[in-house]
Write a structure and sequence with these properties.
Layout: E1 5-12, H1 19-33, E2 39-43, H2 51-62, E3 68-73, H3 80-88, E4 93-97, H4 112-125, E5 131-135, H5 141-154, E6 157-161, H6 175-182, E7 185-189, H7 191-195, H8 201-214, H9 222-241, E8 246-249, H10 254-259, H11 264-271, E9 277-279, H12 283-294, E10 301-309, E11 314-319, E12 335-337, E13 347-351, E14 355-365, E15 368-379, E16 388-394, H13 398-407, E17 413-418, H14 422-432, E18 435-437
Parallel strand pairs: 1-2, 1-3, 3-4, 4-5, 6-7, 6-8, 8-9, 13-16, 15-18
Antiparallel strand pairs: 10-11, 10-17, 11-16, 12-13, 14-15, 14-17, 15-16
Length: 438
């Protein structure tokens, strides 16, 4: 399900143009907006024509706690109007222009596009860049989805258990920079808090049943299977107890030594029930997954850009056994294995399903925040490896994609989600003033 948001709606006009026609169009738009999924619209019902109208609309909308402002240029209008609105409403704004109506006696009726131009120029020269402009009969749902991402991140409660994985300096984040850029607060926990979380026997039994029904467990011991079920119950309970939107876990090297198994398989299970879990303490990876979830993606997966085949023009999106188990291709055997951490690395092993894939990585570099985006296409492959993985092709040659990753210093994890979620994230990046790498 997509992130729920509240949008503020106003329609600006001027009586020297056909404001009656603008009012009729506005009434039709109001009805259309009522069908937006997972969105509430706070609508100022009258046309905003005079400066006092704008001030009244601003006071009304400021009480509605909106997440984004939709400003329709019903006709050309005074430049004061949007600026008065923005005084009280700092949220991102959609500058919505209407297609021109048939001329009436040689007179332009709306001049709406010029109104969008005026508003954009005023905002830009005032240093306000969080706007997006369209000329359309209907709202830009990709902008709406970009607002969903912004709401999800700014209202998120992110946890990190332990720290980033040993030596993974490129996954580091500074808490207050993350707050400034995403509006997100990060709470730090000890690994002990997770693997000693109290759980009921009934919950352990539920997860043990899921383990046995989901995986071939012949490659691990009965004790390891039980530990996996207990850990899944504890991760699930811990996230609910702490009211976490996402949790990044330092899954090695201490976890296997102290708890007795690595958390990979347990994370695979819990993620299949829509929890957002990032391995190796990757907070920005967790935020990337959370953004995909806000757009309605099913169980994102944090992968390594692992292998490339220049002759086949393909890549392998792999990780060591942590993908949500519901992303299975439905053909291979899903199994559990202990191929690393001295036999304590209980991981999920399966091939992921085929289909169109969107890739996202929020990534920082010094004072710069970047967004890495790619479209990929999962293609069939046999189960030849341990871990969880999918073979993909990209819209661009794989060599070019690899070079973009390497020569922009993008971190070695990214979120993948089935479906096309690229354009809302392009808009999200632009209204935040972040560099977009595609």
């Amino acid at each position: 399900m997509k992130q729920h948001i509240t949008l503020g709606i106003v329609c600006l006009a001027r009586k020297t143009f056909d404001y009656h026609a603008a009012g009729e169009i506005f009434n039709r738009i109001k009805k259309d907006l009522a069908t937006l999924p997972s969105a509430e619209c706070a609508i100022w019902p009258e046309l905003v024509i005079e400066i006092d109208d704008a001030k009244k609309a601003a006071r009304f909308l400021s009480e509605k706690h909106i997440d984004g402002l939709v400003c329709i240029s019903g006709t050309f209008h005074l430049g004061h109007l949007l600026l008065e609105l923005k005084k009280a409403l700092p949220q991102p704004v959609l500058l919505w222009g209407l297609p021109e109506l048939p001329y009436d006696g040689g007179k332009i009726r709306l001049n709406s596009v010029c109104g969008v131009n005026l508003n954009a120029s005023n905002l830009y020269k005032a240093g306000v860049r969080n706007y997006h402009a369209i000329v359309s009969r209907s709202i830009d749902t990709d902008w709406v989805d970009a607002i969903r991402v912004r709401k999800a991140l700014s209202s998120a409660h992110i946890g990190i258990a332990g720290f980033r994985a040993h030596g993974f300096f490129n996954l580091s984040v500074r808490d207050l920079e993350a707050y400034a850029r995403f509006g997100v607060l990060i709470d730090h926990y000890e690994l002990l808090d997770v693997y000693e979380q109290p759980v009921s026997e009934s919950e352990v039994s539920r997860w043990n049943d899921i383990v046995q029904k989901t995986f071939d467990t012949s490659g691990i011991t009965e004790e390891q299977a039980k530990k996996t079920a207990i850990l899944a119950a504890r991760i699930d309970a811990f996230m609910k107890q702490e009211n976490l939107s996402a949790l990044a876990i330092r899954c090695w090297p201490e976890f296997a030594a102290r708890y007795g198994t690595s958390p990979c398989a347990a994370m695979s299970l819990v993620q299949s029930e829509s929890a957002i879990l990032a391995c190796e303490g990757d907070v920005e990876g967790a935020l990337s997954m959370l953004a995909h979830k806000a757009l309605g993606a099913e169980t994102p997966y944090l992968f390594d850009f692992s292998q490339v085949d220049f002759d086949e023009d393909s890549a392998l999106l792999w990780h060591c056994g942590v993908a949500p188990c519901n992303l299975w291709d439905g053909k291979c055997v899903r199994s559990l294995d202990t191929y690393f951490a001295g036999g304590k690395g209980v991981t999920a092993d399966f091939v992921l399903k085929t289909g169109d894939i969107s890739i996202l990585r929020f990534d920082n570099s010094g004072d710069a925040q970047r967004i890495f985006l790619q479209r990929a296409h999962g293609i069939p492959m046999d189960k030849k490896l341990r871990g969880t993985y999918v073979k993909v092709t990209f819209d661009a040659p794989v060599k070019e994609v690899l070079e973009k990753v390497v020569y922009n210093g993008i971190a070695h994890h990214a979120s993948m989600a089935y479906g096309d979620f690229i354009r809302p994230l392009e808009i999200f990046g632009r209204i935040n003033g972040w560099k977009i790498i595609q």
